[in-house]
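Students often ask why we bother encoding 3D structure as a string. The short answer is that it lets us treat folding as translation between two languages. Here is a chain of 148 residues written in the first language.
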Amino acid sequence: MDWKDGLLEEGVACISTYLSKENSSEIVAAAHVTTLDVIVPSFRTPEALLRRIIALPTPKDFSTQVIIIVDCPEDGAEVRSRFEADFRERVRVRVNKENIGASCTRNRGLDESSAQWIVFLDDDIEPQASTTGKQMFCRKKNVYSCTL
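And here it is in the second language, the structure alphabet:
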């Protein structure tokens, strides 16, 4: 069952309708927060760079998760213990059972995500502090392709 598309949207609509009938405008507003997953496919798993990606500021009206997909099974347990312990609320680490390459690792990140919006950040590019903010500005302006 694919719960990410119709089923999830139907559930959100049902809850929103119920809450609006209960006059819970603050709760209804909170229920409409835009979700964003930052997916980081990683083979080299450079700790300092991954920590900078996790620390990137995100727009205030977004609920943001970072999903690190490790494509080097030998490093997986160590990466998972380091990052999930330090960033339990904001980071998920998934480890491929074998090296499957960058494209399949990105696809795994898509499978792990349930967010409305996704940003891919590779583990070999130094992100700027405004990266996710600029991407979300493009989203709010309904621009689906923009240069950062």
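Translate back mentally: Strands lie at 34-42, 62-70, 91-95, 117-120. Keep this in mind for the problem set.
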